[in-house]
Amino acid sequence: MIRRISTKLLLAVLAAVVLPFLGFALFVENQMAGRLSKDVVLYSLKGIAADLALRVERDVEEWNASIALLAADPGCYLAVDEAWREESGELEREAPAERRLMRRTQIEQFNHWISARRGYDLFLLVDAQGRLVASSTVGSSGLGLAPEVSAELQARTYEREVWFEAAKAGRAHRVDQHTSPLLPPRNAAAPRSPENFHIGFSAPVVWPEDELQPELSGVFVGAVFALVNWSRVQDELNSPLLKEYFQGLVGPDEFPSAYGWVWKSDADTILAHARTELYGERVSQPPISLPQMTQAALASDWGLYPEYSFDGERKNAAFKHTRSFDDGGFGWIVGVGIDNDDIFRSVGELRALLFKATLAVLLVAVLWTMVIARRTTQPILALREHVQRVAGGDLQARVSVSSGDEVGELAQALNRMTEELEHGREGLIRAQKELAWREMARQVAHDIKNPLTPIQLSIDLCKRAKAERNPQFESILDQTLQIVGRQVSHLREISSDFSALTGARKENFEVLDLAPLIGEVLDLDAAWAQSLGVDLRRSLEPANVRGDRLLLRRVLLNLVSNALEAMPKGGVLEARLRVDGARVVLDLTDSGVGVPAEVRAHLFEPYFTTRSTGTGLGLAIAKRVVEDHGGTIELAAGENGVGTRVRVSLPAAGGAA
Question: I need a surface site. Which of 172, 529, 585, 596 has the fewest CB within 10 A?
Answer without folding.
Answer: 596
